[in-house]
Amino acid sequence: xxxxxxxxxxxxxxxxxxxxxxxxxxxxxxxxxxxxxxxxxxxxxxxxxxxxxxxxxxxxxxxxxxxxxxxxxxxxxxxxxxxxxxxxxxxxxxxxxxxxxxxxxxxxxxxxxxxxxxxxxxxxxxxxxxxxxxxxxxxxxxxxxxxxxxxxxxxxxxxxxxxxxxxxxxxxxxxxxxxxxxxxxxxxxxxxxxxxxxxxxxxxxxxxxxxxxxxxxxxxxxxxxxxxxxxxxxxxxxxxxxxxxxxxxxxxxxxxxxxxxxxxxxxxxxxxxxxxxxxxxxxxxxxxxxxxxxxxxxxxxxxxxxxxxxxxxxxxxxxxxxxxxxxxxxxxxxxxxxxxxxxxxxxxxxxxxxxxxxxxxxxxxxxxxxxxxxxxxxxxxxxxxxxxxxxxxxxxxxxxxxxxxxxxxxxxxxxxxxxxxxxxxxxxxxxxxxxxxxxxxxxxxxxxxxxxxxxxxxxxxxxxxxxxxxxxx
Length: 473
Prior knowledge:
The protein contains 18 helices and ten strands. The chain is α+β, with helices and mostly antiparallel strands. It folds into two domains: 1-310 and 469-473, no CATH class; 332-432, no CATH class.
């Protein structure tokens, strides 16, 4: 059966299908990359009025054929400085702009090489760029669609407000429009298809993306219909799962309420994408420059991933020798003490985690006053001891990532409450060095990274001779 995405869902075009060959894992990892880099890069940046960058479109850095405007330079520097301030507890070592700029230029040199090798046309780069840039076009609270929602005079008046206050105003406008879209759309779900899809999803071992529906008979069934102006449009299960896989932030699909929320999200997304295309919002100068910067970052990540895979093959022969020489690097903690930070609002959980991380420093004790401080903010703190048999898990906990990025469902009577949790490492007990075969993938990757670092240092010297770097700072 021919895809009818273009006819029914104009936002799609030609994208991977959920009933074809599974998407490459590396492609889907770009969604993780997108949620960390792109959300920080786009959401935290400020777009200028309309299409103008107030002179910030001037080129101030050239690396080969790559041109960096003053606008992108400032945004990239601000993002890196925020990351540095968030991750570094040593206030005596301020952010070093010169060092950051030198590393960024080195990275862009590799991007030049990757572009010359055709990585700009790589299927993963094209796919990630199309999906994520479209997502950020309509979802970025400081982006083109948000600016469309806000009257220009109102926005200028509110520029004196603090960032979180302005964001709240825009969030309210989004919520108001969402309510109107859902009212006008008159969504009508096919209850039989809904039940069959829910049954199918409940049988899956994991709901990690990409979700694959193998049953073509089920996938081609109409899941719901909705009104688009005077036209009624149908969406199949295949199309719905495609959209879910392509969303950076999405609802879990193992509950009826999760499915219904995701259907609502899809209809709202389709409306906004269509509106953005009609208004030509993607032609915004700032947005185009941000998009190009994202493309360069994506090219670098995929190119570096390919080099790492080559290094894994090249270093496989001496793994046992490498493991024996670096045994202490792979020792693991038997127990990890953590503080669990839990709440219903993701941003409040993150803010609490950042505050606590800065107060912890190198101390291993949690002050009782800290628990009292967050008790009135609907944030729960709890000390836990985890048995850890994988060092990578310990490292992730130490960085304080979300244990459940999409939240976890806590059943409370008939209500389903979505909560988010961050774990911060505060101590550990006991260590041991596991057997090589028990951690073979980790050893293989560590050896490959060392091999790659050595290769990159040599290649970087060559690239500096090949590509010209001009700075107009």
